[in-house]
Amino acid sequence: MSKVVLVLSCVFGLLNPAAASAWGYQGHKVVGSIADQLLKPNAKQQVRQILGFDLRTAGPWADCVKSVARHDDGTFHYEVDPNHLEFEVPCTPFDSKEERARIVDYAKRNWFTCTYAPDGFERGCHNTFHFEDVAVQRNRFDRSFQGTSDHDAVAAIGAAIAVLTDQPVPPPFSIRDKKEALFMLAHFIGDLHQPLHVGSVYLDADGTLVDPDLAQRIDPATETTGGNAIQDQNVNLHQEWDDIPTDIGEVATRELLSDARALPASQGRIEDWPAAWASDSVLVSHDAFAGLNFRLIRTEPGNNTWSVAFVDHVEYLRRQDAIKRQQLAKGGARLAELLNAIWP
Ligand SMILES: [Zn+2]
Q1: DSSP 162
Q2: How far, CA to CA in Å, does 52 sit from each of 187, 274, 335, 344?
């Protein structure tokens, strides 16, 4: 579950009332926990020394950043929401003065660095680092596709890799040091494996798929913002995918570890891995959106809501459960794979 309202497609200045923080904190902890156990000795030592936390603890960090608010006087503050103290649960390891200051500073440095519509700046550019909105009609990730940007999840992971490999940080990112880069990787690689954080459906008023890549730019009326604008009873489709199977809990299970160990190695240069992993998630999102029918239920300017019906709900839930387990295992395996490659 997510902690704050955030702008999922803020590139286009849309405010969405639903929340998005892939996997909820439990999923991010599980991804980190898998990676912790797959790190080789040198990488493990580097993580311990640079990050000062294990990857399981670090996993939710980038969502804790969403508690930073910008006041009218231009100052930035970490604000605990008294009505949602549960949001703080995964953030308590970072409640020291020093870690809080780092979180606020990261949010501040990455607030105005993207191409938002003016009111989109309410939540800061760092919110866009968590996702892509590649149309489900595509078969891969490509930066030329609609729903991607130079400040999306693939770019954020790439920027963090640059810092950890002593390369210059690509704009528009501001990453203070290797510790911050590790916090980013521990979270965004998890996000990149939640299929609705990468693939998205764009719908018209009849609930029919439209293809945003056939137009010069996305029609805001067609945006479902990774399923946040699609209601299934009283929960939205994105949130359904954020929740992980409850039997997993908050640590790597034996099954997940064994799936993670069995995952084929990533090919090519590590700089190309984030886009390749996103391509894989685009394909997985095809399965996540298969067998669904949509109907427009609410319309507001640039902020439509659809309902979803399932061709076979039992089969859908079975498939969803299997995909989630597979993607958590992949996320953990690839986080470890990357760090083992950086620190062989
Ligand atoms: Zn996230």
Answers
A1: H
A2: 16, 25, 17, 19
- Ligand 1 center–CA 187 separation, angstroms: 6
- 8 Cα: distance to centroid of ligand 1 (angstroms): 10
Tokens of 43: 């990488």
Q: Could you tell me the distance, in angstroms and rounded to a whole number, from the CA of residue 112 to the centre of ligand 1?
A: 19
Ligand 1 mean position to 54 CA, how many Å? 18
Would the pTM of this model clear 0.90, i.e. be above it? yes
Q: How confident is the model at residue 144 (pLDDT cuts 50, 70, 90)?
A: very high
Q: Which residue has the higher pLDDT, 250 or 83?
A: 250
191: left (phi over 0), alpha (psi -120 to 50) or beta: alpha
- Rounded to whole angstroms, the Cα distance separating 229 from 4 reads 16
Q: Give residue 57's pLDDT.
A: 98
- Alpha-carbon span 269 to 192, nearest angstrom: 18
Query: Which residue ranges form the domains of the chain, and what is each CATH number?
Result: 10-342 (1.10.575.10)
What does the alpha-carbon distance between residue 8 and residue 5 come to, in Å, rounded to a whole number? 9
Distances from the Cα of 222 to the Cαs of 9, 140, 260, in angstroms? 12, 21, 36
* Res. 16: pLDDT tops 80: no
Q: What is the DSSP letter of 170?
A: P
Are the C-beta atoms of 160 and 175 separated by less than 8 Å? Answer: yes
